[in-house]
Specification:
- 21% of the residues lie in helices and 21% in strands.
């Protein structure tokens, strides 16, 4: 969340392998709990500056998006993503709010910024 490499904290750690038990007790399906997703931190700082760049991948079939966000406390957050044909700016901005990368108040501003960027790069010359 903070620091020069904010995405490193999202790596999934693998649990150590445990020896298998020969007989496992049967679990009552009514008592089985579904795992609840962990809540994400809410971003409290607002974005003061945004920069965006899009490039075609080497095979020229997919766009790669690089987004640089500068937050109120001068923290630089650089995010990159391979765009899918079904991706749109509003969904991407909403997802960034959901995962705690941007403040909720910045969602619409970022969605408009991304939409303008998409038109700039994807529209034929």
């Amino acid at each position: 969340r903070n620091g020069i490499y904010p995405l490193m904290n999202f790596a999934v750690s693998r649990p150590h392998a445990l020896p298998r038990v020969l007989s496992q007790p049967q679990e009552d399906p009514q008592k089985a709990k579904t795992p609840t997703p962990e809540p994400f931190d809410v971003e409290t700082r607002k974005v003061v500056q945004m920069q965006c760049n899009m490039e075609l991948n080497e095979d020229k079939t997919q766009w790669h998006l690089t987004l640089l966000l500068i937050l109120e406390d001068k923290l630089h957050r650089q995010l990159s993503y391979d765009l899918l044909p079904t991706d749109n700016s509003k969904d991407l901005a909403t997802e960034l709010v959901h995962y705690g990368f941007i403040h909720e108040d910045d969602c619409e501003k970022l969605a408009n910024f991304l939409e303008n960027t998409f038109h700039k790069y994807r529209s034929p010359p």
